[in-house]
Amino acid sequence: MVLEEIGQPLALRDLPKPKVDKGQLLVRINTCAVCRTDLHIVDGELPNPKLPLILGHQIVGRIEQVGENVDGFSIGDRVGIPWLGWTDGECVYCRSSRENLCDRAKFTGYTIDGGYAELTVADARYCFHLPEDYGDVDVAPLLCAGMLGYRSYRKTGEARRLGIYGFGNAAHLIGQIAIYEKKEIFAFTRPGDKPGQESAKKLGAVWAGGSDEMPPEKLDAAIIFAPVGALVPAALRALVKGGVVVCGGIHMSDIPSFPYVDLWNERVITSVANLTRRDGEEFLKLAPRVPVKTKVETFPLEEANTALEKFRAGKLSGAAVLAVSSS
Ligand SMILES: [Zn+2]
Ligand SMILES: [Zn+2]
Q: Which ligand does the CA of 125 lie closest to?
């Protein structure tokens, strides 16, 4: 069973020493941030995970070994390893810089082993150099919540009034960029979540309310980070003509039916899948300029399950980051 198999702290078992192939890096892990997707995997909501599996796809570490044919990385470099871990480089998507849609893509901490561990092996093509401005703990949540949030945000184009449904880690990071770029943020939380609304306002949102409320003005675009399908028609109704709803999560409950008139007038519903290397590079360049600040709660690797349970219960005070070793 998925739960039993991957609920165990596999990282602490005696694993065979990783082998570094051509194009790969052996990385000693310093930190790994915890993502909602990790919970979806543990709960069996994403099909066909590698089993047994080491979770974790927001990895920060130092290179210990460099495989043949690797350019641009040396032993001792600090690297970030994100969700998109491998693509074939050959399919129609890869050849048009849309490797995020690769038919044969493999994902860190899902279909290849991830970062709830002390060592990992990664394909160098998908590793990032990380900005010096950030420490190992603070930079980890940028690698998924930040990068995927950034891809969602870019899909809203020139939108000035931007709704964000689900004000968690991704919203917290992207909200800072949006405000830096002079956008107006309208934050939607669970109905009655006053602390969530307060924290959105503190970040600079011009309005914060429950997801059952209509914003005071129509929105040019909305991003949905909460995995709740019912928010799609709700967000559509809050849009101006020609507005776009971007679904930023990998998993969402079913979207209920809604009248065509809510979509009419060239409103658009789209989704974001994974990330391209370009998204990652752009985001890591922009983040220190804003500067995007992360809010984190750290756990030792041994307490990975505690971190997941606190995430599930909504009891974290920031992004959960596993502190594995210090660099
Ligand atoms: Zn993630
Ligand atoms: Zn491909």
A: 2
119-170 tens-digit pLDDT: 999 999 999 999 999 999 999 999 998 999 999 999 999 999 999 999 988 9
pLDDT confidence of residue 1 = 33
Distance CA 67, CA 21 (A): 6
DSSP track, 201-221: HHHT-SEEEETTSPPSS-EEE
| For residue 5, pLDDT beyond 70 | no
Q: Looking at residue 247, what DSSP letter applies?
A: E
What's the CA-to-centroid distance between 57 and ligand 1, angstroms?
6
- Residue 300 to residues 121, 143, 220, Cα–Cα distance (Å): 21, 19, 42
- The neighbourhood of ligand 1, an ion, using CB within 5 A, equals 35, 37, 144
Longest dimension (CA), the chain: 59
Closest CA to 37 of 279, 322, 252: 252
Read off the pTM.
0.88
